[in-house]
Write a structure and sequence with these properties.
- The chain is built from 9 helices and no strands.
- It is mostly helical.
- It has 2 domains: 64 residues, Arc Repressor Mutant, subunit A (Orthogonal Bundle); 139 residues, Tetracycline Repressor, domain 2, CATH 1.10.357.10.
- The protein is elongated and about 60 Å long.
- It starts with 17 loop residues before the first helix and ends with a helix.
């Protein structure tokens, strides 16, 4: 768990037994639904407990306040995105650059869209619950995974530098936020994914040509 100013967001305890894990999952899902239906200002632990079908006392066993609850959901969401990207990068190793980029961009988009409601809900509160620090942590993991993958590209002499990788991550993240906030149709998501693949492929081809 993150230290420093983020310790205020830490949960009271981690569920160990299966029953406790089910309870925490219900609380997490209820939090997302209350956030979407009532907004961040009207989200309370009482509303979340009612939606989850548990007592407020049970909720407080795991989360001391709503900030720690929201932080836990954001941390879990980012962990799933980071893990998906790390797996995608590992799978794409030792391929041509364009195929690598297509694979990781498509996985990124698909992972974000799998629970697009969580992404949209968390955008509302990210700045208030330690979101920037978690975003940096996610970006570092993505950067490390991308660097390792790109070093194995079979058709480039030198991998892109750190700035180029950071720029690609920023383009992916910014594009997805803009897309999600528009509540797109499936067709719009597919089109945007194609455009984002093309953008990242073109940029990385230019970046690797410049350093080779």
């Amino acid at each position: 768990m993150t230290t420093g100013t983020l310790t205020v967001f830490e949960p009271r305890k981690t569920p160990v037994q299966a029953r406790a894990a089910v309870t925490v999952d219900a609380i997490s899902e209820a939090t997302i639904q209350v956030l979407l239906s009532h907004g961040a200002d009207r989200l309370t632990t009482t509303r979340v407990a009612d939606r989850a079908g548990v007592s407020v006392g049970t909720l407080y066993q795991y989360y001391p306040n709503k900030q720690s609850l929201l932080f836990a959901i954001m941390e879990d969401h980012f962990e799933k995105v980071a893990a998906a990207m790390e797996a995608a990068c590992e799978q794409a190793c030792h391929n041509p650059l364009s195929e690598m980029i297509q694979h990781v961009v498509e996985v990124f988009v698909d992972t974000k869209m799998e629970r697009s409601d969580i992404s949209v809900a968390l955008y509302q509160v990210a700045a208030e619950i330690g979101g920037p620090a978690l975003v940096k942590k996610l970006a570092r993991r993505m950067q490390k995974a991308l660097e390792a993958m790109l070093r194995t590209a079979v058709d480039i002499k030198s991998p892109p530098d750190e700035l180029a990788i950071d720029t690609m991550i920023a383009a992916m993240s910014g594009t997805m936020r803009s897309l999600l906030e528009r509540r797109p149709s499936p067709a719009a998501v597919r089109k945007q994914r194609e455009q984002l693949v093309l953008l990242c492929q073109s940029y990385m081809a230019a970046a690797t040509a410049r350093v080779s």
